[in-house]
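Methods: holo model generation. Sequences were used as deposited, without trimming of termini or removal of tags, and paired with ligand SMILES retrieved from the corresponding compound records. Each pair was processed once, and we did not select among multiple samples. The sequence and pyridoxal-5'-phosphate SMILES for this entry were:
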Amino acid sequence: MPLSKFGQKLAAEAGIVTLMDDLGDALRVNPEMIFMGGGNPASVPEVEAALDRALQKTLDDLALRRPMLGVYQPPQGDPEFLTSLAGVLSREYGWPVTPANLALSNGSQSAFFVLFNLLAGEGTDGIYRRIQLPLVPEYLGYADLGIAPGLFRAARPAIETLPEGLFKYHVDFERLQLGDDTGALCLSRPTNPTGNLVTDEELAQLDGLARTHNVPMIVDGAYGAPFPDITFGSAQPFWNDNTILVLSLSKLGLPGARTGIVLAAPDIIRAFTRANTVLSLACGNLGPALAQQLLSSGELLSLGPDVIQPFYRTRRDAALEVFQRELEGLPCRIHRPEGAFFLWLWFEGLPISSTALYQRLKTRGVLVVPGEHFFPGLEEPWAHQHECLRITYCQDPVRVAQGAAILGEEVRRVYAQG
Ligand SMILES: Cc1ncc(COP(=O)(O)O)c(C=O)c1O
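and the model returned the structure below.
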């Protein structure tokens, strides 16, 4: 079947598609697999109870239930929800947000597709612009989103080594080059896959650079503040009129509702809404209906600090401890986990690629994600890229500990074989 160039790219077995297929297949073949691979949030009982209450309230009220199921909302999203959300964000954060600054999408992944292709590719002025990732590793889901080829450019980070076998990536401002062909900056905060929280100072400096070059800065807050706020450090929530903050209900516990939220200047929201109308006609109503209930009860903002953060902090501490123990004596460093729900392991001088290690672990019943996928837009070769693994610690800590033990054993073999 002859496909368009873009069709071929979309339908190709590359990047995220291969990985999702491979993770799915591995689980089908061996349902006992220790799954430390995906990005699914953990099942958090208090969150699930809050979501059940929100759903029940919506179902019990005919005036809410009917429109949730039987009405196309305007393409920008349910006006009542946008007004409530704008009110809460202005009150709680002092951000000058009105409904004109907000739009919804069917999941934040699709919002990134629209934003990247609005802001990068061949411009109306003939300039070919790219999305600049100020540092990689970065979210692998961005990699194949460009309609035009080569949509991303990425800079290598600076590495700060820390006590207790930890390390942290920083933006390397000397390496980071913006030019006339930069369409936007984009970073996830906290970062998938590393759990990095780009510091307040780095973010302020990036904001300054974006303004100087007259391009927006996209901040992917899928794991960050205001919700679900899976952060363990002291990073301040950030937004201003040159920032496009993309939020999601997924990591709060609603990946099935497919709801993304874009907070940006009104001209960007208008362009986004039109593009989203072409793509989706309207957004799904379930997520906004539940989020509206959580806004009214105050839980949308309180679940993060009161329930979600402590839950993942406990899981993180347990995971960090077992991995540090199982990997002791190996040339391994772990990125300081400051948010999200991942550990990022760096095996310096790993004798095989991280993809080969991933395959070996899979045959031993442990699923992780090889690091190679997380460097979209990095053009220069970098050995580090092949030395890292991402571990999701949402699972039951007993399973994570079993996985860590097998991983430690396998990596020891790899180094011993040389
Ligand atoms: C950093 C980051 N951004 C965006 C997404 C997309 O999430 P969703 O489309 O469920 O909102 C994910 C999903 O894992 C993610 O990890």
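The domain at 47-300 is CATH 3.40.640.10 (Aspartate Aminotransferase; domain 2).
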